[in-house]
Amino acid sequence: MKTSPSLAVFAAFLFCSLLLITSCKKDPIQDDGLGADPIGPDRALPYTYPDWMANIDDSKYLSEITIPGTHDCGADLHTSAQGTMSNLTIAQDFRIANQLLLGVRWFDIRLNDDDGTMTVFHGPYYLHKNFNDLIRPTLDFLTAHPTEVVVFMIKQEHSNRGDDAFANGVLGYLNWSYPDRFWMGDHIPQLSEVRGKVVIVRQFWGTHGYAMGVPLLWNDNTTGSFGGTDDGMYVYVQDHYSLNSVSLDTKISEIEACLSKAHTEPYPFRCYYLNFTSGEQDVQGTSLEYIASYINPRINNFLLSGTIWHNVGVVFVNFAGGSDDGAVPNDLVKTLVNLNITGPTTVTIGTQVWESANLNVISYRNGDPIPKVTDPTAWSTLTTGAYCDYNNSINGYGKLYNWYAVNDSRGLAFAGFHVATEPEWMTLANYVGGQDVAGGKLKETGTGHWLSPNTGATNAVVFTALPGGWRDANGTFGNSGTIGNWWTSTPVNSDALNFYMQYNSAEIIHQTNNAKYGYSVRCIKN
């Protein structure tokens, strides 16, 4: 008896579906599996930006905003099990679920095609996960945060399948995992087209005859050359990853040049700027972590140098959120996210809405510049507002302001905010348990910024207090890493009240001090 065409099609579909589900299971060589946690689970996140795209206008093109990305996103410390090869292989400390919470939105994904089974590799190293181990947490994240957009940039790694065969394998995973969640258009989308979706771009030509997203292709170890696409768009890439022939400082200059070029692009809806801060070097003892510890803080400082950056493209980083041992600072992703925000980022604590970082403005609310005073003698004679950076060098802790700037009628805070008063600080301290423990509840955890032992630090309400130190009335700097000081707007005769926290105490303490001192500032919503 002949099989009807409809039954034949159904049978073929069922067979392919079963085959696909089987192929999407964990690869047989993945004996210890995702979540084996060879050195334990991810540490606590230093900050979270799960919804930072929510306030960006729908009309913006994906290429018009600054996007934090991760290089080799699957090569994370806690699930990749590389042992002695970790220095050459591990590029991240946080797994992808936590990279998403940090604010990362563009992922560099390297897949090995083993006859349709897509496992995650970094170079020749298998990372003990398959493509689904990246897809599932991403879709879960987008379900919880539908205003966000995530980009998967997919490349074949350590396998040599033809482009069409590789594309077919990738497509199988995407179609099996809710195909309506993946956007595979052939143009740069506006946010309104892709919110709540994963945008697919590819580092290969083949498509197996299907829409597979925009191809972004460039020469190996490029130094900022243009790469063409097949749709009249273009990509500008800085991916000079080999540091055997150039110095780290040259690499940093190339990163900065790409940031500047993206910032001045006249037609951002036509071009993706892809800027890799990552690199490798064939010198014994030069780990990926060491390179990140050198490059990341310098790029962070460059972006905080006073220029008003608004669009610097996609910036791929290693050790997004810092490293477990504190060698790599955790600021860079936060800085990149904040380049998209015209007002302050906030955290709600009880009935109060606080800014979530120390103030970093260089002008009053009306646009008048705040004088930057570096000379200690000049600082000591001031009776008007001024600011400085600790040790006259940008460190990511925000600016130090004298109290004259806090009290200036032109306004130090963003519109709708004000410098917190002494009673408002006391409300915060009481909310987290009182002054004896509030310092610990408010301090950033770990010793990436605070010196050891950072007593009591839990960052329980994500206030993320940092030890910015101070500048005294004589213009001398002190105590960065050990003490954080914050002005209030509450005067006491010719002086003012401030609060401080210490590295070796869980307390928060308030006192009166000279208005000439330079302290950090936190603002609160009106």
Describe this entry's structure for a reader.
The protein contains 13 helices and 23 strands. With 526 residues, the protein is of the alpha/beta class. The protein folds into two domains: 49-338, Alpha-Beta Barrel (TIM Barrel); 346-525, no CATH class. Strands 1, 2, 3, 4, 5, 6, 7, 8, 9, 10, 11 and 12 form a twelve-stranded mixed sheet that branches. The N and C termini lie far apart (79 Å). 46% of the residues are buried.
Helical content band:
10-25%
**Class of secondary structure makeup:** alpha/beta
Instruction: Assign an overall shape.
Output: elongated
CATH topology of the largest domain: TIM Barrel
Spans where pLDDT lies below 50 across 5 or more residues: 1-36
Radius of gyration of CA atoms, rounded to a whole number? 25 Å
State the major sheet.
Answer: 12 strands, mixed
How many beta-strand segments? 23
Helical element count?
Answer: 13
Distance between the termini: 79 Å
Percent in strands? 15-25%
CATH homologous superfamily of the largest domain? Phosphatidylinositol (PI) phosphodiesterase
Q: What is the CATH architecture assignment of the largest domain?
A: Alpha-Beta Barrel
Mean pLDDT level:
88
- Multimerization state: single chain
Q: Tally the structural domains.
A: 2
Q: Give the CATH level 1 class of the largest domain.
A: Alpha Beta
